[in-house]
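Propose amino acids for all 221 sites.
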């Protein structure tokens, strides 16, 4: 399957109702849903491409973007089922439109559904999409001070990814401070360090997702 469906995001109240309905459906199906949140350019789509190339996960992606369908095209090129949501300038995704997007995905064939949220470290963290958990993505060039500057995201995520670690030798990124701040905000949260150029760290990340997908499937009600 290789298709892109484009939806426009609508403004809608009572979004919690949609988030609950998504969560309920996923629980019945045993489908893991992961909401990926990070700045524009932090490497979210590249990470998802790398994840798709790592065999053994049946995945689909919902791409949230202000305007283009470029990220969806990148995923479709890898034969990943993908739905694009254009928010028309909206800075986060909302559950009502995510639920509609899910209707055009082959959910019963999947291990995991990833949502690449709109590039933004602030409000995407505040919106429940009915996901199992949020993942905070920070790329090394953005700086080690960002977890404390955007504490809500880093405190609420169930995994933190430090991407572009290949660039660390060229940066003055204080990894000790980064680790300490993340641990302080979110004690015990798993932190993955990935380099999508060499692929370093991707296997550990995919293992984590695979484990969570298996756990979800095992708990089908
Ligand atoms: N050096 C380096 N560049 C990366 C890495 N991951 C992504 N990039 C580059 O960062 C830019 C933004 O990546 P993209 O995945 O589109 O970011 P997104 O906006 O978060 O989806 C692209 O030019 C990528 O090639 C990485 O691990 N190392
Ligand atoms: Mg992207
Ligand atoms: Zn927003």
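Proposal:
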């Amino acid at each position: 399957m290789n298709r892109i469906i484009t939806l426009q995001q609508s403004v809608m109240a009572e979004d919690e109702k949609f988030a609950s309905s998504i969560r309920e459906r996923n629980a019945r199906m045993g489908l893991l849903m992961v909401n990926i949140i990070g700045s524009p350019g932090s490497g979210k789509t590249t990470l998802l491409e790398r994840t798709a190339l790592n065999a053994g996960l049946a995945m689909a992606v919902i791409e949230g973007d202000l305007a283009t369908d470029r990220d969806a095209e990148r995923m479709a090129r890898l034969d990943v089922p993908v739905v694009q949501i254009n928010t028309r300038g909206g800075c986060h995704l909302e559950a009502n439109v995510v639920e509609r997007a899910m209707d055009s995905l082959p959910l019963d064939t999947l291990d995991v559904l990833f949502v690449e949220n709109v590039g933004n470290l602030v409000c995407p963290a505040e919106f429940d999409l009915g996901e199992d958990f949020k993942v905070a993505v920070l790329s090394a060039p953005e700086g080690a001070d960002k977890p404390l500057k955007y504490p809500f995201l880093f405190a609420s995520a169930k995994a933190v990814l430090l991407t572009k670690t290949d660039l660390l030798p060229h940066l003055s990124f204080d990894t000790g401070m980064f680790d300490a701040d993340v641990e302080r905000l979110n004690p015990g949260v798993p932190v993955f360090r990935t380099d999508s150029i060499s692929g370093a760290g991707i296997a550990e990340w995919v293992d984590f997702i695979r484990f969570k997908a298996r756990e979800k499937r095992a708990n089908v009600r």
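The chain has a mean pLDDT of 94. The two ends are 29 Å apart (CA to CA).
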